[in-house]
Amino acid sequence: MTRRLGLSLAMFLLLGFAATAGAQTQTVKPPGNDDCLACHGDADVKRENGTSVAVDEKVFAGSMHGPVACVDCHKDLAALQEFPHPEKLAKVACATCHDEEGVKYHDSIHSWAKEKAGLTAAAPACADCHGTHDIRGTDDKAGRVFRANIPATCGSCHQGVLEHYGQGVHATARKAGNDAAPVCADCHTAHTVQRADNDKFRLEVTAECGTCHSEVVESFRRTFHGKVTELGFVRVAACADCHGAHDILPASNPASKVAKANLVQTCSACHAGANESFVKYDPHPNPHSYQRSPLMWWVNRFYTVLIAGCFGFFGLHSALWFRRSWRNGGGRS
Ligand code: HEC
Ligand code: HEC
Ligand code: HEC
Ligand code: HEC
Ligand code: HEC
Ligand code: HEC
Ligand code: HEC
Ligand code: HEC
Ligand code: HEC
């Protein structure tokens, strides 16, 4: 028993010694936020060239990264022992913590434009859409990526699109308080934005329209355009070819691409020589609605009756046949 106690005591002392030794070799503590803010918390701190390097402590503390250390993002200063630090520092790599978004972003037109097409300054990296020290969450009304603020965030670069979008039915519905109406990221995604003429995007966006307009998508699928689109052949008309993408308007609005007076022009984009009678073609037929598609309704009725009749007749026929063979002794054996 005493031997055991002695052993434990020895272990305790040994461990204690190891711990202090560890602390001694680990003398370099990364600089804390207070160390950085001693200079950067001063609103007047500037670079040699006069641009500000001030960081608003309150704004940072109120951001999603308030609890994060400065040097967790500005990693090249984590091992710094003595100030001042070098003038030029490495760019912050957000993806070291947000790898999922990093991987998605890497597949986007924005990443491609930045890295491959040389649009280094024009195309957005993470911080251009999210900010730097004022990053807020998706559920924070004051944040750049709060649902209602997304059009303004994307529109800061895509001004022409924002203008068209602002005139369309979806923005109008949003202004009227319908939060279900789509913003840029619903149709384009936030991180895997593709070129608009990309085939995959064209198919996906048609499916996206369908998440909210399921009935019209069903009717679209009944048409030649819809069937061919479904097969993955994308050069026929999808939703946006007839309705527009950003300036979509109800058919009752005379400025709509699908208003009666504009249909010839809309269809002519692909059907050279389209005329008044060509555009009588119904792009959203519904065999269950007599008012909408009387011919289809009749055909649908006819087939329903025909099929019911066939099954009824042959069903009866088989039943009688079975009864007969049962009586004749076929059932017993
Ligand atoms: C002694 C004052 C001081 C301290 C402490 C200090 N900085 Fe700086 N920092 C500066 C000055 C001055 C500049 C502008 C340098 C220049 O002239 O470009 C600067 C620039 C920067 C830049 C911009 C670099 C670039 O490439 O443009 C970053 C990022 C930065 N500091 C982060 C930090 C972090 C993080 C800490 C804490 C670990 C810190 N600083 C601590 C004074 C300081
Ligand atoms: C969530 C990551 C993150 C954290 C945490 C962070 N920064 Fe930054 N900081 C950035 C980004 C992004 C930039 C823009 C330059 C870049 O992309 O590297 C930047 C730029 C800077 C600059 C250059 C001036 C400017 O505003 O562009 C200074 C100075 C700076 N940070 C200081 C700090 C200090 C001090 C702290 C801690 C109080 C801190 N940062 C915390 C991401 C961060
Ligand atoms: C073109 C603008 C844009 C760029 C570039 C961008 N984001 Fe986002 N991000 C958004 C939008 C918009 C949302 C909101 C998503 C939503 O509501 O569907 C978002 C959401 C997020 C979220 C919240 C969780 C989520 O996925 O919804 C994180 C984390 C995030 N982004 C990190 C990043 C990182 C890291 C990068 C760089 C690798 C990046 N973002 C680049 C626009 C952007
Ligand atoms: C050191 C790790 C780290 C780095 C680097 C970092 N973040 Fe974060 N980020 C966090 C943590 C922790 C949170 C809060 C927890 C959470 O909800 O994920 C957060 C939250 C977020 C959110 C809010 C997510 C939501 O749920 O709404 C966004 C957006 C975001 N970060 C973007 C960025 C961007 C952009 C950068 C680069 C400028 C960056 N982060 C760099 C750790 C980091
Ligand atoms: C209802 C779905 C939808 C919404 C919402 C939407 N887009 Fe689009 N966007 C599309 C479609 C579909 C196309 C392809 C149009 C085409 O092929 O003519 C497109 C094309 C684009 C293009 C490339 C072609 C061009 O017109 O410049 C950009 C850039 C773009 N959108 C940005 C945005 C931005 C920014 C927003 C938000 C303000 C937004 N989109 C909202 C569906 C949408
Ligand atoms: C910092 C500026 C900037 C921001 C913010 C930005 N973009 Fe872009 N975007 C660009 C640039 C630059 C390109 C590539 C050049 C081009 O093709 O127009 C591009 C390309 C695109 C394209 C492909 C255009 C095409 O011709 O096919 C779409 C779609 C798009 N962005 C949508 C968005 C959406 C959605 C958002 C917000 C979530 C957004 N962008 C935010 C600058 C930006
Ligand atoms: C996130 C949901 C959502 C998505 C995605 C969506 N819409 Fe809408 N759409 C709405 C809402 C909500 C309205 C407004 C309905 C109202 O005000 O009665 C609307 C209205 C319309 C209208 C006018 C209809 C009317 O009755 O006034 C048309 C046409 C339309 N959308 C076409 C499209 C097309 C084409 C796409 C894909 C490019 C699309 N929508 C994507 C939700 C969506
Ligand atoms: C070949 C052209 C064409 C295609 C493709 C097409 N539409 Fe239509 N759409 C029209 C026309 C024309 C109307 C208006 C007359 C009518 O109701 O038939 C209409 C009506 C609508 C309406 C009702 C609008 C209103 O104001 O009442 C919605 C919503 C709609 N379409 C959505 C879609 C969606 C979503 C898709 C893709 C799945 C799509 N459309 C594909 C031509 C088309
Ligand atoms: C984006 C291009 C595009 C638009 C816009 C478009 N179509 Fe089509 N449509 C096609 C293609 C491609 C085919 C298959 C080739 C063909 O038969 O011409 C097709 C086939 C058809 C067919 C069946 C094939 C046939 O010729 O009998 C009809 C009917 C039709 N379209 C009507 C319309 C009407 C009406 C509109 C306008 C409301 C319209 N389309 C708008 C591309 C388009």
State the main characteristics.
binds heme C; 3 domains; 17 helices; disordered N terminus; mainly alpha; 333 residues
In short:
The protein is mainly α. The protein has helices at residues 2-25, 33-40, 57-62, 70-73, 99-106, 109-115, 126-130, 150-155, 159-167, 169-175, 184-188, 199-212, 214-221, 224-230, 239-243, 263-268, 294-327.
Notes on the structure:
There is one protein chain. The protein has 333 residues and is mostly helical. The protein has three domains: 24-83, no CATH class; 99-243, no CATH class; 286-320, no CATH class. It is built from 17 helices and no strands. The radius of gyration is 34 Å and the shape is elongated. Bound molecules: heme C (9 copies). The site of one heme C has 20 residues, from α12, α13 and α15.
Q: Could you tell me the number of beta strands?
A: 0
Helix percent reads 40-55%
**Main sheet makeup:** none
Q: What class, by secondary structure content?
A: mainly alpha
Write the topology of this structure.
Elements: H1 2-25, H2 33-40, H3 57-62, H4 70-73, H5 99-106, H6 109-115, H7 126-130, H8 150-155, H9 159-167, H10 169-175, H11 184-188, H12 199-212, H13 214-221, H14 224-230, H15 239-243, H16 263-268, H17 294-327
Helix pairs in contact: 12-13, 13-14
Residues 33, 36-37, 40, 53, 55, 60, 65, 68, 70, 72-74, 91-92, 127, 132-133 line the site of one heme C.
